[in-house]
From TrEMBL:
Plays an essential role in the synthesis of galactosphingolipids of the myelin sheath. Responsible for the synthesis of sphingolipids and glycosphingolipids involved in the formation of epidermal lamellar bodies critical for skin permeability barrier. FA2H is stereospecific for the production of (R)-2-hydroxy fatty acids. Plays an essential role in the synthesis of galactosphingolipids of the myelin sheath. Responsible for the synthesis of sphingolipids and glycosphingolipids involved in the formation of epidermal lamellar bodies critical for skin permeability barrier. Its EC number is 1.-.-.-. Residues 98-125 are annotated as: Disordered. It is a multi-pass membrane protein. Zn(2+) 1 binds at residues 249, 254, 272, 275-276, 334, 351, 354-355. Heme binds at residues 42, 68. It comes from Gasterosteus aculeatus aculeatus. Gene3D superfamilies: Cytochrome b5-like heme/steroid binding domain (3.10.120.10). Keywords: Endoplasmic reticulum, Fatty acid biosynthesis, Fatty acid metabolism, Heme, Iron, Lipid biosynthesis, Lipid metabolism, Membrane, Metal-binding, Microsome, Oxidoreductase, Transmembrane, Transmembrane helix, Zinc. This is Fatty acid 2-hydroxylase. Pathway: Sphingolipid metabolism; galactosylceramide biosynthesis; Lipid metabolism; fatty acid metabolism. The keyword Metal-binding applies. Binds 2 Zn(2+) ions per subunit that likely form a catalytic dimetal center.
């Protein structure tokens, strides 16, 4: 709903009817929100919202057990569609609605004169109007233009802006081909990398099975590496990947770029800031193939220069498998709807809190394994 138009008045019976996955409305006081598109994203699961459809969620927003953050409240305003009309049957309410409708008709006709278009009630209630857009006149960037070259000018305002999430897609570049190269459908990760994982796993296992691989400890001492060591090397690679992911996420992705440095702000936004600004832009929840290839290739070269080639490859394939699982779990945590009480349910709630409330803590997404030794565990709150 545009900020310049008067809110719709919605009767209690009408709000109560919207209680399904296809149309779910909730109340916050007298304000009505259409949260249908948010059901699968909700960290508490879609069932939690469906049970409260048509009802006031103010107690749940305030807590306990979980008091929603300012970012969560700001996010909810994107789904605002109108006000509850408790006196919908009275003559006074009918008169108010008639005056409101006449006023809105005047506004629409004024707009028609300028644009040559007529706004119908059907257009007003179209799906794309259910979610309030970012106020283009008040936001710090122009969303109608590519963002990559704008964010660097935000300076000291960038850090606060990038951690105020919105539910809208981001366009980084004006060039269609360049823009397409920054997006990846989730299924391309397993399609591209799992064949590599399977091939190298088979190659390493069979090569180690020949019994000719030895690890030289000193000039005169070497240890034979049996094929049954492959699972241990594989798990070592997975372990190393989880540590690398944590360090990159915490110390690179979540660095606070200097306010005076246009280029560092831009690089930060391209690497990870965009994901925090639009955390449910599905096409940007996985690494683009080019960037992933660069990271994977660097990991492989470092290992092969540190260990004998076959051992380095065995560790590498475990790390590569860990990366694939990392990306798939990450996507599921944003769009999946795990069963309440399950491990993935808690992990989804944990990760979404990282986006909305604890941006400076809880940097791992696959588990809290590295959060404990580095003391970045998000406070435990149940939904």
């Amino acid at each position: 709903m545009s900020p310049s138009t008067s809110p719709r008045l919605l009767a209690e019976k009408e709000v109560a009817r919207h209680c399904t996955k296809d149309s779910c409305w909730v109340l916050l006081g007298t304000r009505v929100y259409d949260v249908t598109s948010f059901l699968r994203m909700h960290p508490g699961g879609e069932a939690l919202l469906l049970r409260r459809s048509g009802k006031d969620v103010s107690p749940e927003m305030e807590g306990p057990p979980h008091r929603h953050s300012e970012n969560a409240r700001r996010w909810m305003e994107q789904y605002y569609i109108g006000e509850l009309d408790r006196d919908s049957g009275t003559d006074e309410a009918q008169t108010v609605r008639a005056r409101r409708k006449a006023g809105e008709q005047t506004v629409r006709e004024t707009g028609d004169e300028r644009t040559g278009k007529r706004v119908t009630e059907e257009d007003e209630n179209a799906d794309y109007n259910r979610c309030s857009p970012v106020d283009l006149n008040k936001d710090l960037v122009d969303w109608r233009k590519p963002l990559a070259w704008q964010v660097g000018h935000l300076g000291e305002k960038y850090d606060a802006w990038v951690h105020q999430p919105v539910d809208r897609p981001i366009r980084l570049f004006g060039n269609p081909l360049l823009e397409a190269g920054t997006k990846t459908s989730w299924y391309w990760v397993p399609v591209l990398w799992l064949p590599v994982v399977f091939y190298f796993s088979w190659y390493c296992y069979t090569t180690l099975g020949e019994g000719t691989t030895r690890l030289n400890l000193t000039s005169g001492i070497s240890v034979p590496i049996h094929k049954y060591c492959f699972p241990l090397l594989f798990l070592l690679g997975w372990f190393l990947w989880s540590f690398i992911e944590y360090c990159i996420h915490r110390f690179v992705f979540h660095m606070k770029p200097p306010a005076h440095n246009y280029y560092l702000i831009t690089i930060h936004f391209l690497l990870h800031g965009q994901h925090h600004k639009s955390p449910f832009d599905g096409s940007r929840l996985v690494f683009p193939p080019g960037l992933a290839s660069l990271v994977v290739g660097s990991f492989y070269l470092i290992l092969c220069r540190t260990l004998p080639e076959i051992l380095g490859t065995s560790v590498f394939v475990g790390g590569l498998c860990g990366y694939v699982m990392y990306d798939m779990i990450h996507y599921y945590l944003h769009y999946g709807s795990p069963k309440r009480g399950s491990y993935m349910y808690g992990l989804k709630a944990y990760h979404v809190k990282h986006h909305f409330e604890h941006q400076r803590a809880g940097f791992g997404i696959t588990s809290t394994f590295w959060d404990h030794p580095f003391n970045t565990v998000i406070p435990n709150e149940k939904y």
